[in-house]
Amino acid sequence: MDIRTQLTHQIELKSFAKKQVVYRSGVTAKGFYYVDEGLVGLYQVSETGKESLLRIYGPGSFFGYRSLFTNQHYPSTARAMLDSKIVHVDVNDFKSLDLAAPCLADFLMKEVCAELGEAEKRLMQFNAFSAKKRILDTIYYVFHTYPEYPWTYREIGEYSGTDTTTVIRYCKTLKESGILESNSRKPLPVSLHQLADYRKSLLVN
């Protein structure tokens, strides 16, 4: 969905360098965002300052829009994972958006429902699946969806809800089994098809 065809005066294209913060957790929400180019990560920050990767947004994705429905502060921190171009939409409540761009308002309402469903699914996986299966699912998802990004063990651990040490140890096993590239310092699948087949074999065994 090209928001430029629906909103004109309320949008501003901004450039963000890799690792630059788009907005921080707890800050008063000021509109929402659309990824034009690049990659954005949504991070939960603990009381001790530790960050965990919750969601990933690539080109064509909206983020930060839940504030339209709740009128609350941003609950998480958004940061560019690559050099990115991001559109800021300066609309601060759902009623204003619905008046200016009803099709976009309807689309975002459906996106909220979809994200809630995804969150419930991930919570179920955290409770039902072993760390190994969560790691495999995460590796497949990130490399299938965002293959251009140099994923790290830490990021795979954060997204899968697993500590980094466990990820490194299991990825070593996957390298020895030929599932991941043995000569790569980072987790890199030899083949996504092979990775998917290996994941299915764990469900059977």
Q: Would you mind describing this structure in some detail?
A:
This is Putative cAMP-binding protein-catabolite gene activator and regulatory subunit of cAMP-dependent protein kinase. GO terms for molecular function: DNA-binding transcription factor activity; kinase activity. Residues 1-97 form the Cyclic nucleotide-binding domain. InterPro entries: cNMP-bd_dom, cNMP-bd_dom_sf, Env_Response_Regulators, RmlC-like_jellyroll, WH_DNA-bd_sf. It comes from Photobacterium gaetbulicola Gung47. The protein has 205 residues and is α+β, with helices and mostly antiparallel strands. It has 2 domains: 3-125, Jelly Rolls (Sandwich), CATH 2.60.120; 129-204, Orthogonal Bundle (Arc Repressor Mutant, subunit A), CATH 1.10.10.10. Helix content is 42%, strand content 20%. The strands form 2 sheets. It has a 4-stranded antiparallel β-sheet with strand order 1-8-3-6, with no helix packed on it. The longest helix has 27 residues, at 102-128. It starts with 10 loop residues before the first strand and ends with a helix. The mean pLDDT is 87.
